[in-house]
Amino acid sequence: MKRYIQFGASVRATMFITLAAKAKALMSGRYHVTRDDVSALALPVLRHRVLANYFAESDGMDVDKILLQLLDGMRTSSAAA
Length: 81
What we know:
The protein is mainly α. The chain has a single domain, classed as Magnesium chelatase subunit I, C-Terminal domain (Helicase, Ruva Protein, domain 3). The protein is built from 4 helices and 2 strands; from the N terminus they run βααβαα. It has a two-stranded antiparallel ribbon with strand order 1-2. The protein is elongated, with a radius of gyration of 14 Å. The chain starts with a strand and ends with a helix.
């Protein structure tokens, strides 16, 4: 995925995913954040913080596809552990 990303998300993106996940958990009646909360909000939060480069465009990859592959890779690596 490094090949496709011009600019990545900053530390602020992590802060906003955390805040949004906390809000989602509270709206669901929970006081704890789950992995599903974070997964549901990662794409909307990161979508405008990641900029794809020319290689991504030429290979038909947009930011959503790149982020979905990254999230999928994180899920499979954590499931294997």
